[in-house]
Amino acid sequence: MIIVDDTGTIKLVNAQTEALFGYQREELLGHPVELLVPGRFRVHHADHRDGYANNRQVRPMGAGLELHGLRKDGTEFPVEISLSPLETTDGLLVSAAVRDVSDRKAAEDRFRGLLEAAPDAMIIVDDTGTIKLVNAQTEALFGYQREELLGHPVELLVPGRFRVHHADHRDGYANNRQVRPMGAGLELHGLRKDGTEFPVEISLSPLETTGGLLVSAAVRDVSDRKAAEERIAELAALVESSQDAILAKTLDGHITYWNAAAQRLYGYTRAEVMGQHVSLLAPPERRDEITVLMDRLRNGEKVEHFETLRLTRSGGLLDVDITLWPTRAANGTVTGTCAIVRDISDRKQAEAELTVLYEQQRHIALTLQRSLMGTPPAIPGLATASRYRPATQGAGVGGDWFDLVPLGAGRVGVLIGDVMGRGLEAAAVMGQLRSAAHALAKTGMQPRQLMQALDTCVADLDVPDQLVTCCYLVIAADAGEVTVCSAGHLPTLIATPGEGARALPAPVNAPLGVGDVLYEQSSAVIPPGATLVLYTDGLIETPGSDIEDQLAELTTTLSDLFATTPDLEAAADHVLATLLPDVEGHNDDVTLLLTRLPDAPLAAVTTDLPAVPDSVPEGRAFLSKALTSWDCTEVADEARLLLSEVLTNAVQHAQGPIGLHLRRTATDLTVEVGDRSPHLPQPRLAAEDEESGRGLILVRALADSWGVRPTDDGKTTWFTLEL
């Protein structure tokens, strides 16, 4: 007991005060009562005292305030304080009875801790249905804050349609006072703050206290369980009404479930098959697979879309697709199996018909493509190996092509191209471009000029957004030189025995069809015996792989192959097997062409002559001397005559200097005359009184082959005689 005056000075304390706060009486008397108040409350304590002095009402013990005392040793403890005003002649005195409630608070905290630790929402109400206590789970479940529930009727949490009778149910329970366990067969619902309802289970427990009856309600949300129960019922109905046969079996293969569709499929009623072994449904030659499947299922493996034959009650055979999976106990142990069986007889028949039709269409399409691609001619002295694989997707028709064009005078043109896209449209564009490219190449034009002309051809096709990659190379065997122009095509590789593989240097040009592109070409000297490797993107652009990585793999493969001098056919097969190991797994057509450079001529000589008449006999003399040294005098007369005609044309109609180049191989003699005039000679029939016009007629008649090709400086006219 502590008595203070209106200034808050302690006037009187009893022995219990000394024991409670740890002070001696003389340490308290005359000191402000704030000495016994924790520091954090002292600032406002004077205001509270003044407020009480103005009010002067008795305040009973435990008036709902959270109060604390401060001992001499600095420790705090919870207290309840009752205040009583005392009017005296000396003024107002206030008597404060202070009670230490530490034990009670500890007990309450333990009770609250247990309440908060409960997995369910806990609500405690008195006998009037007023909510006295809730835990955090209640707040989470119903969406209310704790202070929104305490002191309010529990009907706040009951849907409106049930509230009328809820008070009667409460009164009935108060008279009965029996523990009611969870899930007592009642359909109960809760109401959240947002107005939504949800199914609940509630267990009730009566609590007899000195203050009267309290009822503890544990509330559990069973929305998920109810939904699961509904789903199970729905699935059971679906299984029974399924159009697929569904059956269940024990691990030793005895049937335990058989739906209506199984009866329709197999012809057996449920009564006939229940308890029977599932091998009843398999033809004798297929019963071993039942054993294998059951072993897989016992090991926990799921078997999906297993296609096989099954036997009906009437003895007929069915094509079926079966999916099987193991059923498990709660601890994961496999206890049985289930199977879904679908009749695929119609599908199998349709697949067989489609396969025949597809093969017919594919054969027609590939025949069309091969006819459009043509068959490149065999060129004497030029070793090649080529491979073409149609796409495995669709009809297999694509836009790949390649061509070998004999240009004469020991020169060969090599073409490869790829029309973007697949199908008959790409193949049609390919066929037109291949024919155009072949015709253009035969004129002897340079690679960059051919690309320029092909770009115009693509534009004239009037196919929207059509792009074509193409590469044209001209091989000059006597000089060991390759001239190349690439229109956006993948790099050509050079594989040299003992040196490995590398890319052939070439300017980067846009694909055909872009338009307004000035195409560039370059020339490079290639060592004798080297092989040019040309290919389309189907070889290295495969799904799930990086094109740079695939190109590096191709280069490495070629380097390994050309450590020596391989057979080109074997090399082509090895490249395909390495880059495309899955023969049926590429969705674009693939073209691969290996071309080994021809051997250099046995002998070759060159001289330059001025554009004057004396150059004609000088050129003949140079030719005679070379033929004598090469032991080729058997063609000397024809060679001199033809050279005279060609040189005379150059002297009369062109500009000098005139280049004369002679080349001899094991089989022929080639004579080339180059001048500085871009005008190409045209053979014509001369009139009887004309002296000119007969030269080219003689060349055409006597030479085994002849031609004219444009050059950067003018043109070169050539003819060949077989030895």
Strand content: 25-35%
The structural class is alpha+beta
Mean pLDDT: 87
Shape: elongated
CATH topology of the largest domain: Phosphatase 2c, domain 1
In CATH terms, the superfamily of the largest domain is PPM-type phosphatase domain
**Number of beta strands:** 30
Percentage of residues assigned to helices = 25-40%
Q: Can you tell me the CATH class of the largest domain?
A: Alpha Beta
Number of domains: 5
> How much is the radius of gyration in Å?
52 Å
Strand order of the largest sheet: 2-1-5-4-3
Largest sheet: 5 strands, antiparallel
Between the first and last Cα atoms, what is the distance in angstroms?
142 Å
Individual helix count: 19
Segments where pLDDT lies below 50 for 5+ residues?
none
Report the CATH architecture of the largest domain: 4-Layer Sandwich
Q: Secondary-structure map with pairings?
A:
Elements: E1 2-5, E2 10-13, H1 15-21, H2 25-28, H3 39-55, E3 67-70, E4 76-88, E5 91-100, H4 102-117, E6 121-126, E7 131-134, H5 136-142, H6 146-149, H7 160-176, E8 188-191, E9 197-209, E10 212-221, H8 223-241, E11 245-250, E12 255-258, H9 260-266, H10 270-273, H11 287-298, E13 303-311, E14 317-328, E15 334-343, H12 345-373, E16 383-389, E17 398-408, E18 411-422, H13 424-442, H14 447-460, E19 468-476, E20 481-487, E21 493-496, E22 500-503, E23 522-525, E24 531-535, H15 547-561, H16 568-579, E25 590-596, E26 603-609, H17 615-630, H18 636-653, E27 658-664, E28 668-675, H19 695-702, E29 705-710, E30 715-722
Antiparallel strand pairs: 1-2, 1-5, 3-4, 4-5, 6-7, 6-10, 8-9, 9-10, 11-12, 11-15, 13-14, 14-15, 16-25, 17-18, 18-19, 19-20, 20-23, 21-22, 21-24, 24-25, 26-27, 27-28, 28-30, 29-30
Helix pairs in contact: 12-13, 13-14, 15-16, 17-18, 18-19
